[in-house]
């Protein structure tokens, strides 16, 4: 028995990576926001490095800022439900 069991072949594996939610979308704690993306960084109420996960229930929003090398990065944030 070799290969992936019940999975996806490596040829199409890149299709599963990327951003999974859009701005203004409601998410629950533990929801995966991105997978294998270095262009998004964790902001408020978001945990992880390359795969970002929601730390609390709320609404997703994005902000942009410059990092230490003057490169513009996108932060994924969550506004908690009050």
Folded structure, characterized:
With 82 residues, the chain is mostly beta strands. It is built from no helices and 8 strands. It has a single domain (19-80), classed as Beta Barrel (OB fold (Dihydrolipoamide Acetyltransferase, E2P)), CATH 2.40.50. It has strands spanning 18-19, 26-27, 34-35, 40-42, 46-47, 53-54, 58-66, 72-80. A 4-stranded mixed sheet has the order 2-7-8-4, with no helix packed on it. The chain has a two-stranded antiparallel ribbon with strand order 1-3. It has a two-stranded antiparallel ribbon with strand order 5-6. A hairpin with a 5-residue loop joins strand 7 (58-66) and strand 8. The protein starts with 17 loop residues before the first strand and ends with a strand.
Task: Tally the structural domains.
Answer: 1
CATH architecture: Beta Barrel
Euclidean distance between termini CA atoms:
50 Å
Q: What's the helical proportion of residues?
A: under 10%
Give the topology, please:
Layout lengths: L17 E2 L6 E2 L6 E2 L4 E3 L3 E2 L5 E2 L3 E9 L5 E9 L2
Parallel strand pairs: 4-8
Antiparallel strand pairs: 1-3, 2-7, 5-6, 7-8
